[in-house]
Structure formats: C-alpha cells, structure tokens
C-alpha cells in the first residue's frame, strides 16, 4: 500500500512517522515549501515534491493534512490529477462534503494535539473515520487500527461537536497553563510546583464529572480572594487581558450550583 | 505529637487522613456542623467538637483548614483559648499576618485540588510553609516532609502569586473541561474520546512551555472554523456564556506570536 502525504506540518509529520512505523510505504510528501517536504520525506525515504503535477497517480491513499482553510481548494487541484484515488482530510471541523469534488473521499481525524517538540503514542489516540463508500471505510479502518486501539466511525456533525469540545478541553486549557506559566515567570516563582496540580486536575476529569469537582475561590464565592487576585492582575501585573479572562471565568464558575 | 483540625471540608479531610497515615495523632476535629466533625473524626479515632470552648489546650498544633474568609475571625476566637499553641492556616492567598492575633503562627499550604470523591497521593503534593519563628518552621518542615517529598518555604507574597497561577492552571482549566463535557453531553458524543487529549495537553505543559505548544483554530487564525464554532455555540447550543468565553479566549490566543 502506497500513501502520499499532502502537507508537512505537525499532523502530517506525526502521521507520516506513525504510518511508517506501522509498515506503510509513504511514497511522496507534498508541500508548497520544498524544504519542509524534503525534511519530512527524508525521515521515511519518501520523495519530496512541491508541485501537484509531480504527484504520482499510482498510489492507494492521499492524506490531506493541511490547514482547514486550504482543504477545499487543494482537493479541487488534486482531483484534476488523481481522480480515482481515495482522498482523506484530517480535520475535526471540516465536513466530508468539502471533498465532494473527489470521487472517493473520507476523513481520517486523529483526536490529539500534536507538537513537533514531542512524540505521541499513536496507540492511545482516538481516530475518527468517515468515508462516502463502505469499501473505502473498511480500508481506512484497517489502516487506523494498525495505528491505534481506538478507532471510531463518526459522521461530520458528530466530529464537529467533538472538535468544538476539544477546543475547550485542549486549546483553552493550554492557554490557561500559558497564563499560569507567565504569572510564575513574572513573579519569579517555580512553575514546576504547579505540575502535580495540572496533572491531577486533568486526571480527575477522566474519572469524575468536571462540574462536580470544580474548586477554587470563584466556586466558593470567596469575594475577598477574587478581589485580591483581580487587583494583582490589574495593578501589579498590568495584564488587562488576563484580568478580563479571570473575571469572565469567575463569573461563570460562580453560577455553577 | 497531638494535632487538632479546625474544619471538616475537603482540605481538612485529606489532611486528617494523610497525617493519620503518617502516624500523627489527630486529637480533635472541630466544625460548627457536629455531624461533619463526627464523620471525619470517626475515621481517625479523634473527638468531634462543635464549640471552641470544647477544644483541648494541650495540643502541639492547630490546623485551620477553613474558608479563607473565616480564617481571621476563627483565629481570633481560638487565640483566646489556645494562646500558646502553634496555629497554621492552609490557604494559598491568605497572608501569614492574617494570623497575627496568634503568638505562634504559620502556613501549611498543600498546592493541590482536593475532592472528596478522589484520594490523593500526598507524597507528590508540594507543601508551602511559612512561620513567624524558626523553631516553628522547623517543626512544620518535619511534619510536611513526612507527608510529602516536595516541601518548600515560600513567603506570603510568593505563595499568593503561585495561588493566582494555580487558579488559571487548575480551576479555569477544569471549567474548560466542564464546558467540553457539557457540549459532548448535549450533542450525545462520547466525552471519553477527549481523555487522551486532556491528559496529553496537561502532560505536555510539564515538559514544554505552554505558549510554544499552543494549537487550535485560534492559533492558526482559522477564521472559518472560529465562525463555525461560534455559530454552534450561539444558534445551536444557545450558550451565550460559552460563546463569550470562546470569543475572548480565541482573541487572546490569536494575539500570541
């Protein structure tokens, strides 16, 4: 089985490495930036290309691991060259029908946050699949199951809901860590003291209902502490954005009964 | 060594259990609510009391594990009865001098989120200590080191900074999990699919700089996805509070360079 990867960013990089480790042949890696394509392709003995005309039609699967905004346009260009090949995108919030220009289309969405700085354990990453034919869905399932123990068939609406939830659970919680990190930097206290707290809070969310284990001054309606924290954010740290977030979060948490 | 616990809430409960497991004698547990005091006291063969006049003066340490707002007033009442006893509070944001009515005073702040639903591993919980005398600080260190491998001496200002950071890292990230959980409930998709993402995001914050590993549609300035998510929050879920948070978070994340 030969696979071509469109894209050389974070998702593409981790997918290429994961698929290669499972024994799949990565045939070509495409990126508009040839250096990026070459860097990734060289890790798995693939060919790097930076024009669509260079893409080999003789492959079994093309994976579009590119920004959501580019999917429709790139799929349109690809479909002119690779009309019979199964094409899948890797986006949580992009519907399958954005690939409707492709005769054989699917979705291969790994529900995880990927950074170039850190390896991932593919086996534990949920992969959400969709395809416009049963036969192609079976093929995607086989590939996904070689990568991961957690393979699910979700339609575009379900996947979108899960991706929206993921933005809160991952992107926004990471932004909270970022602010916490910056506060400790500014005040010269040790961020690593928060590590057990961060891990425990996350771990707890996997075994308890988050609402039921909400803690903190806002949950306790501890107005004096809330005012003290707001004062530090405003007058000491002079961080009006963090203050706005602190106030909004606290107001909403106070509303939890 | 005999210890009296003032309070029977989450912090008091976990501290009583942890100290008892380390071999410390919990002598009395005080709560205005006798049933709460009795329930906790019975787990460690301590006496439950609900009036300050019943407190035994012959103890080595009194721990005030009560709401931040009550610390000053309760310390005032206690100091009339227990003038020679070392008294500590367990609050992150309350200064040591809020106990200035007490001749021997200190802080014993365990930096963790405590729920009655879930046991904790005391050994990994940072404990931040402060006292107004070197001798009492030595005594607190000894107790803390029996509980935990991570014992630090932090002054009130440093502790306050760390607690403010902890509100972002823990309370606010948990609220993000809560919203994610509610979205999955409303849309009838499986919250447990987000568990690996939640754990990976938290784990990554302990090995990378959170700002450097920020991901998501806001970080990518993916306006179409942002609009799509905002539309779901507003028109489909009809959750104006979550929408306000989504917009504020996204705006701030977009500002990260």
Outline the fold blueprint.
The structure is a homodimer of 257-residue chains.
Chain A (H helix, E strand, L loop, with lengths): L1 E5 L3 H12 L3 E6 L3 H9 L4 E3 L11 E4 L6 H11 L4 E4 L15 E6 L16 E5 L2 H14 L3 E3 L2 H31 L8 H11 L17 H14 L3 H15 L3
Parallel strand pairs in A: 1-2, 1-4, 2-3, 4-5, 5-6, 7-8
Antiparallel strand pairs in A: 6-7
Question: How would you characterize this protein structure?
Answer:
With 257 residues, chain A is of the alpha/beta class. Chain A contains 8 helices and 8 strands. Chain A has helices at residues 10-21, 34-42, 71-81, 134-147, 156-186, 195-205, 223-236, 240-254, and strands at 2-6, 25-30, 47-49, 61-64, 86-89, 105-110, 127-131, 151-153. Chain A has an 8-stranded mixed β-sheet with strand order 3-2-1-4-5-6-7-8, with helices on both faces. In chain A, helix 7 runs antiparallel to helix 8. The N and C termini of chain A lie far apart (55 Å). The mean pLDDT of chain A is 96. At the A-B interface, helix 5, helix 6, helix 7 and helix 8 of A face helix 5, helix 6, helix 7 and helix 8 of B.
């Amino acid at each position: 089985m030969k696979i071509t990867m469109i894209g050389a960013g974070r998702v593409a990089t981790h997918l290429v490495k994961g698929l290669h480790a499972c024994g799949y042949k990565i045939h070509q890696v495409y990126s508009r930036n040839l250096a990026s394509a070459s860097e990734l392709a060289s890790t798995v003995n693939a060919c790097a290309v930076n024009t669509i005309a260079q893409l080999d039609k003789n492959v079994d699967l093309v994976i579009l691991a590119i920004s959501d905004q580019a999917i429709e346009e790139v799929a349109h260009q690809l479909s002119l060259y690779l009309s019979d090949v199964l094409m899948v995108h890797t986006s949580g919030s992009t519907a399958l029908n954005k690939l409707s220009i492709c005769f054989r289309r699917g979705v291969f969405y790994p529900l995880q946050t990927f950074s170039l700085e850190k390896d991932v354990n593919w086996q534990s990453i949920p992969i959400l699949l969709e395809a416009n034919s049963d036969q192609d869905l079976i093929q995607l399932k086989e590939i996904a199951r070689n990568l991961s123990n957690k393979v699910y068939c979700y339609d575009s609406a379900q996947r979108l809901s899960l991706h929206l939830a993921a933005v809160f659970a991952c992107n926004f919680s990471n932004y909270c860590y970022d602010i916490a990190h910056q506060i400790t930097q500014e005040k010269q206290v040790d961020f690593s003291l928060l590590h057990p707290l961060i891990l425990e809070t996350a771990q707890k969310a996997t075994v308890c209902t988050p609402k039921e284990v909400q803690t903190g001054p806002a949950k306790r309606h501890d107005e004096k502490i809330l005012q003290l924290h707001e004062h530090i954010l405003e007058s000491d740290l002079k961080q009006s954005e963090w203050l706005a977030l602190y106030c909004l979060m606290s107001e909403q948490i106070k509303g939890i009964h």
